[in-house]
Write a structure and sequence with these properties.
Shape: globular
Number of helices: 24
Distance between the termini: 38 Å
Length: about 550
C-alpha cells in the first residue's frame, strides 16, 4: 500500500493537514521580510561634500542661528549649484584652500575657485537621524553609490547557490530538521546584521542569511505538498503564495512605522524565534520518511494524521510493500533532457522565461521609489498587487489553460513597462507600473505549474531545478540593470519590458498542457498537444522520431 492509497483512508487534505499546512504558510512569511528589506534599508538621504575649513565660519556672520539653518547657509558658500540651478551638487565642492577663512558676510566670488571632489567626506541631511539608512551609515554615496546594488547582487548570488544546498540538505536530513536549522541561522545572522559597523560585514551576514530565508519558503512549500494527495498539490502551491504576498505587504507596513533600519532588521528577524518554537506543531514528511526507509517513523506520522482527521487507521503495519512508495530508479542525465530537438527548444524557451520573470519582477520591486511616490507607499502598492495576481494565476490555470495566459501575462508586463517610459512621473506612471507588476507576478505563479507539466517524470525535478537556477541568475543580474538608471532613468523598465515581450513570443512556441495527462516518459512529453504517431519499427524511422 503506497502513501497515495493510505491518504484515501486517513484523509487526502483533512483538518490535521490543514493545521500543519497553515503553520508552514506562516513560516514562509519570513522569506519576503528579508528578500525585500534592502528596499527600505537603502532609503535615499540628501548629502553633500564636507570641508573642514568651513567650520571656522561663525553662524552669526551668516545672520542665522546655530543648527540646520547654519548648516544649509554654509552649504550655499562652498557647494556648487546643479546645472539646472534647482539644487546643489552632491559629489562636488569648491576647492577653498582657506579662501573663506576670513569670511565677513560679503558674497564670495566662487567663479574663480576650482571645483573638486569630496576628499573630506560628506555631510548628511541633519534632519535624518542615525540609523535611518545604510546609505548614510556606511557612506554609500558618490563613487560608492553602486555598492548597494553590488550588495544585492551578492545576496541573490548566494541564494542561487543556496537553492541547490537547500534541496540537498532537506533530502539528506529531512524537511523538519532543515526548517529548524535554517531558522536558527536566520535568527543568528539576521540579529548580527543589526550591530555591524562595516558595509562588508553587512554584506557577508546578509549573504549567510539569504539562502536560509529562501529555504524557509521552498522547504515548507515541498513539505506542504507532500502531506496531501496529488490532486491537492496545485492548491497548496497557490495558497502559500498568498502568504508570501502578505509577508511582502507586512514588510512595507513595518518599514513605515520603524524608520531605523537596524531596528527594522531586528523586527524582521525575531519571527525566526517563533518558527523555532513552532517546530512541535509540524510533522516530518511521510513521503520522505518512506523514501529513506524510516518506516516506523512514517507509521507514527500517519497515525497522527489519522487521529487528527478522526479517521480509522488502515492495517498497514504488516505489509512489506509499505516500505516504499514505488520509487522508480531512473537515470537522470543532461543527455536524457537534451536528446531531442523539441526538448532542447522547450528547455531554452523556459530558461529564458524564468530568467525574464525574475529580472522584471525584481527590477519593478526594487524601483518602488522611482515613480514619484514615497518608497514605502510604492512598495506597499507593488506588494499588495501580488494578492490579486495570485488569484488571477489560479483562475486562469484552471479555466483558460497555460500557454495563452502565460503569453498574455508576459506581453502585458512588457507593454506596461515600456509604456511607463512615455508617462510623466506621478500617479499615472505608478498605475501602469502596478499593472506590469500584477502581470509578472501572475506569470511567476503560473510558470511553476506550466514547466512541471511539460516534462516527464524522469527529468521533471531536474528540469525545474535548471529553470529555477536561471531565475536566480536573473536575481544576480537585475541590480546592474538598476544601475543603468544613472545614464537614463527609464533604462531598467524598458529593458525589462523588451525581455518580457521576447519571452511572451517564445511561450507561443510551447504546447498547451491543459487537459493533457502528466507525461510519464520523454515520448509522452514530445507529443503533448499533438496526435501521437505510430511507434517506429525500423532504425531509420526511430532516427527520424528522435529528431522531433
Amino acid at each position: 500500500m503506497d502513501f497515495e492509497e493510505i491518504l484515501t483512508h486517513i484523509g487526502k487534505f483533512g483538518p490535521f493537514q490543514w493545521r500543519v499546512y497553515l503553520v508552514l504558510c506562516c513560516i514562509s512569511l519570513v522569506t519576503p521580510f528579508h528578500l525585500f528589506s534592502q528596499v527600505f534599508f537603502a532609503k535615499p538621504v540628501d548629502h553633500w561634500c564636507y570641508d573642514s575649513s568651513i567650520d571656522a565660519i561663525n553662524c552669526s556672520v551668516l545672520n542665522v542661528t546655530d543648527g540646520i539653518e547654519c548648516i544649509e547657509a554654509k552649504r550655499n558658500l562652498y557647494i556648487p549649484r546643479t546645472a539646472d540651478g534647482d539644487g546643489f551638487e552632491k559629489c562636488q565642492k569648491y576647492q577653498l584652500d582657506g579662501y573663506l577663512l576670513d569670511y565677513d558676510g560679503a558674497d564670495a566670488n566662487t567663479s574663480v575657485i576650482a571645483i573638486t571632489g569630496c576628499d573630506d567626506g560628506w555631510v548628511y541631511d541633519p534632519r535624518v537621524p542615525y540609523g535611518y539608512s545604510i546609505i548614510s551609515d556606511f557612506e554609500l554615496v558618490c563613487h560608492r553609490r553602486s555598492l548597494p546594488q553590488i550588495a544585492m547582487s551578492i545576496f541573490f548570488f548566494t541564494i542561487m547557490i543556496g537553492v541547490v544546498f537547500n534541496g540537498w540538505i532537506s533530502d539528506r536530513i529531512g524537511r523538519l530538521y532543515t526548517i529548524l536549522i535554517m531558522s536558527v541561522v536566520v535568527c543568528v545572522s539576521g540579529s548580527a546584521v543589526c550591530i555591524v559597523k562595516s558595509f562588508w560585514a553587512y554584506v557577508i551576514l546578509r549573504s549567510i542569511c539569504g539562502p536560509c530565508v529562501v529555504g524557509l519558503f521552498s522547504v515548507p512549500f515541498v513539505l506542504g505538498a507532500e502531506l496531501v494527495s496529488s490532486e491537492s498539490r496545485i492548491l497548496t502551491g497557490f495558497v502559500i503564495e498568498y502568504f508570501f504576498a502578505i509577508g511582502y505587504v507586512l514588510t512595507a507596513v513595518l518599514a513605515e512605522f520603524i524608520q531605523n533600519w537596524r531596528l527594522l532588521q531586528l523586527t524582521l528577524t525575531l519571527p525566526a524565534l517563533l518558527i523555532i518554537a513552532s517546530i512541535p506543531l509540524i510533522v516530518e514528511s511521510p513521503r520522505w520518511l518512506l523514501s529513506r526507509g524510516h518506516n516506523q517513523r512514517a507509521i507514527t506520522v500517519i497515525k497522527q494524521i489519522a487521529k487528527g482527521n478522526r479517521k480509522k487507521m488502515p492495517d498497514i503495519s504488516q505489509e512489506p510493500t509499505f516500505s516504499q512508495t514505488k520509487v522508480v530508479d531512473e537515470k537522470i542525465t543532461m543527455r536524457e533532457l537534451f536528446r531531442h530537438r523539441t526538448m532542447v527548444t522547450r528547455t531554452l524557451i523556459l530558461m529564458v522565461a524564468w530568467l525574464t520573470n525574475n529580472i522584471v519582477y525584481m527590477v519593478i520591486s526594487f524601483s518602488a521609489g522611482a515613480f514619484g511616490v514615497n518608497v514605502i507607499v510604492g512598495s506597499l502598492l507593488l506588494a499588495a498587487v501580488e494578492i490579486p495576481a495570485n488569484t488571477i494565476a489560479m483562475v486562469t490555470v484552471k479555466y483558460l489553460g497555460r500557454r495563452y495566459p502565460q503569453c498574455c501575462m508576459f506581453f502585458t508586463a512588457g507593454a506596461a513597462s515600456i509604456l511607463s517610459r512615455f508617462i510623466p512621473i506621478g500617479g499615472w506612471q505608478i498605475a501602469v507600473v502596478v499593472v506590469s507588476k500584477l502581470a509578472i507576478s501572475a506569470s511567476f505563479n503560473t510558470i511553476f505549474v506550466y514547466t512541471a507539466e511539460l516534462y516527464p517524470t524522469s527529468v521533471r525535478g531536474f528540469s525545474l531545478s535548471i529553470c529555477s537556477m536561471m531565475a536566480r541568475v536573473g536575481g544576480t543580474i537585475f541590480p546592474f540593470i538598476l544601475l543603468l538608471a544613472d545614464y537614463w532613468q527609464h533604462f531598467p523598465l524598458v529593458i525589462s519590458g523588451i525581455l518580457a515581450v521576447i519571452s511572451g513570443i517564445g511561450i507561443l512556441l510551447l504546447p498547451e498542457t491543459k487537459m493533457a495527462a502528466l507525461p510519464a516518459t520523454i515520448e509522452d512529453a514530445l507529443y503533448i498537444g499533438r496526435k501521437r504517431i505510430p511507434v517506429p519499427t525500423s532504425p531509420g524511422d526511430e532516427e527520424k522520431t528522435n529528431e522531433l
